[in-house]
Specification:
single chain, alpha+beta, Pnp Oxidase, Chain A, seven-stranded antiparallel β-sheet, 5 helices, about 35% strand
Length: about 220
């Protein structure tokens, strides 16, 4: 089959969550919006993300061997659009205006306003046509705050019914804990308070969180 428009159109009927995947390249953060992210296994704890071949993020992950994924909340649509914008600067200035913290194991950036994060070491890299499949071993994970997830469907970002509750989050945390990874409400024992304080008390800057003027979205 070589009908890319049809495949893209049909695939768009499958709603997904949205994450921002980050890593470090020469001590500078790199990040991209991704919707091809999923959990794979609880034992061992594995997730996967598909990244376009030739992308800067993929090259950086191949070099660093680590990455983090932040699950975006419905209110983070502008951040999803920003990190998907190919015309933005690719250096650390891309994170200006975004509250961030350091993942507890790898040190990759986590978006502080997200719903949850996964802190990963690369377990295996597999070919996937014009993409690469990055299989990550979850070294740590946790919830960042309450809210509804941002979804991507039909080629656009959509929200969910605001009356919907995040049912099963406690069970999900228990499952993560049973898989031998750390889980909780923050990035680490020392970073938890900073992440939660920043999220709930107006983006206060700390040694682990930053808050600057937002970039313009094109």
């Amino acid at each position: 089959m070589n009908e890319k428009p049809q495949l893209r159109r049909v695939a768009s009927s499958f709603a997904t969550g949205v994450v921002v995947v980050t890593t470090m390249a020469d001590d500078s953060p790199v990040g991209t919006t991704v919707n091809s992210f999923t959990t794979v296994s609880l034992d061992p704890a594995l997730v996967l993300v598909c990244l376009q071949r030739g992308s800067r993020l993929l090259s950086a992950i191949e070099e660093s061997g680590v990455f983090a994924a932040t699950v975006l909340a419905a209110e983070q649509r502008w951040q999803a659009q920003w990190f998907a914008n190919r015309t933005r600067l690719a250096d650390a200035t891309a994170f200006a205006g975004v509250a961030t913290g350091r993942a507890p194991v790898t040190g990759c950036l986590v978006l502080g306003e997200g719903l949850a994060y996964f802190d990963c070491r690369v377990h295996e890299l597999l070919p996937g046509g014009d993409h690469a499949i990055v299989l990550g071993e979850v070294a740590a994970c946790g919830e960042l705050g309450p809210g509804e997830p941002l979804l991507f469907s039909g080629g656009r970002y959509v929200g969910v019914d605001p009356g919907r509750h995040r049912a099963g989050s406690t069970a999900g945390s228990a499952a993560a804990g049973s898989a031998g990874v750390s889980s909780g409400s923050g990035l680490s024992t020392s970073a938890t308070a900073a992440a939660v304080t920043t999220r709930r008390n107006g983006m206060t800057s700390t040694t682990q969180m930053t808050a600057n003027t937002p970039n313009a979205i094109r």
